[in-house]
From TrEMBL:
Superkingdom: Bacteria
Location of the CBM20 domain: 8-98
Lineage: Bacteria, Pseudomonadati, Bacteroidota, Flavobacteriia, Flavobacteriales
Keyword vocabulary terms for this entry: Hydrolase
Pfam families per record: AMPK1_CBM
Species name: Croceivirga radicis
Molecular function per GO: hydrolase activity; starch binding
Name of the protein in its database record: Glycoside hydrolase
């Protein structure tokens, strides 16, 4: 898994590219507090090599909790900036700091 951050000089946003190797998966989405944990509209595209990839524009100078939804199973990104316990989920969420 990988997270790539590209800060834009012209806008107060950061283009964040999420990459998830999941050859056996049918669907992968990134969900978090930046999209109300809704997988609709946040699906990653499956590439020929079996990796899922997607880029999202997020406001910078913010911190977001997120997880991947891989075929209905929540997965954290090991390359996240840090992790934070979430009482509602009863688990740790990955955190990205922009």
């Amino acid at each position: 898994m990988a997270i790539k951050k590209q800060y834009l000089k012209s806008k107060p946003i950061c283009k964040v590219t999420f990459t998830v190797p999941a050859k056996e998966a049918e669907n992968v989405a990134v969900v978090g507090d930046f999209n109300n944990w809704n997988p609709k509209g946040s699906s990653l595209k499956k590439l020929k090599n079996g990796t899922f990839k997607g880029t999202f524009e997020l406001p910078k100078e913010n911190t977001y909790e997120f997880r991947y939804l891989v075929d209905k199973t929540y997965v954290n990104d090991e390359s996240a900036d840090r992790y934070q316990w979430n009482d509602y989920a009863g688990a740790e969420n990955a955190v990205i700091e922009l």
